[in-house]
Amino acid sequence: MLELLTSETPNGWKVAILLEELGVPYKVTPISLTNRVQKEDWYVALNPNGRIPTLIDHDDGDFAIFESGAIMIYLAEKFGRFLPKDVHGRSRVIQWLMWQMSGLGPMMGQATVFNRYFEDKLPKVIDRYVRESQRLFEVMDRRLADNQYLAGDYSIADIACFPWVRGHEWAQVPMDGFDHLLRWYDEIGARPAVQRGLLVPEPPRAEEMAEKTVTQGKNILA
Ligand SMILES: N[C@@H](CCC(=O)N[C@@H](CS)C(=O)NCC(=O)O)C(=O)O
Fold first, then answer.
1. Whole-angstrom Cα distance, residue 211 to residue 185?
2. Of all protein residues, whose CA lies closest to atom 20 belonging to ligand 1?
């Protein structure tokens, strides 16, 4: 059995969506960021970075994996899907996955922090992260002008980027004018497995969202 330790954030949804696309059974262990469970000793023993997500493969010696990109590669290789086997095809997917892990995720994350969670509104800092996120949207938009997906067929590269693009409103990073990106975003968002993955670890309860996110934001800044 696979066990996903996660919370309702983009890095967690990436893995939940992949598991749903794979259609394999898995157990979900919700990790409360509000209660800082990700910093508890038992969790840090599994994930030295003290952040979500973590995957444990109980069918393979309770092997624990941290870093969402590494988890995605592990699952894609274990089940032989969403990552090509030929050297160039595989490299293309990993290039875009690395791009998400080092660029899109961190920049969108910082845009969110400084637009939403930071009490002082720092215009130059906000401008820096919003502009950089939009530059990355433009990179995707150019790529998607001539390609249905980011790297060949639908792959872990698309799955990794989707929840971060989905967070554009919350991060206050406008997506207007990125027509190819919007086309891709609508297409991926319509996939049933993607919709199911976004409900992990639990469907958002509207009335709790605002308070919960603010509280989590404080943890992100800790
Ligand atoms: N590079 C890591 C980033 C993980 C990460 O930043 N997770 C966030 C949620 S999206 C988290 O756990 N935040 C709580 C904290 O920082 O303590 C990955 O991709 O797994």
1. 27
2. 67
pLDDT at 215 over 90: no
Structure tokens, 119: 């009490």
| Gap from CA of 183 to ligand 1 centroid (Å) | 28
Would you say 92 and 82 are in contact if contact means Cβ atoms under 8 Å apart? no
Enumerate the β-bridge partners of residue 85. none
Residue 118 buriedness (CB in 10 A; 0-12 / 13-18 / 19+)? middle
Burial of 136 (0-12, 13-18, 19+ CB in 10 A): buried
Average pLDDT over residues 36-47: 98
- Tell me if 100 sits within 8 A of 164, measured CB to CB: yes
Q: What digits encode the pLDDT tens for the residues 181-198?
A: 999 999 999 999 999 999
Contacts of 86 (CB under 8 A, 6+ apart): none
Q: How many CB atoms lie within 10 A of CB 187?
A: 15
Q: pTM (2 decimals)? A: 0.93
Taking the centre of ligand 1 as the mean of its atom positions, its distance from the CA of residue 5, in whole angstroms, is 12
- pLDDT tens track for 75-125: 999 999 999 999 999 999 999 999 999 999 999 999 999 999 999 999 999
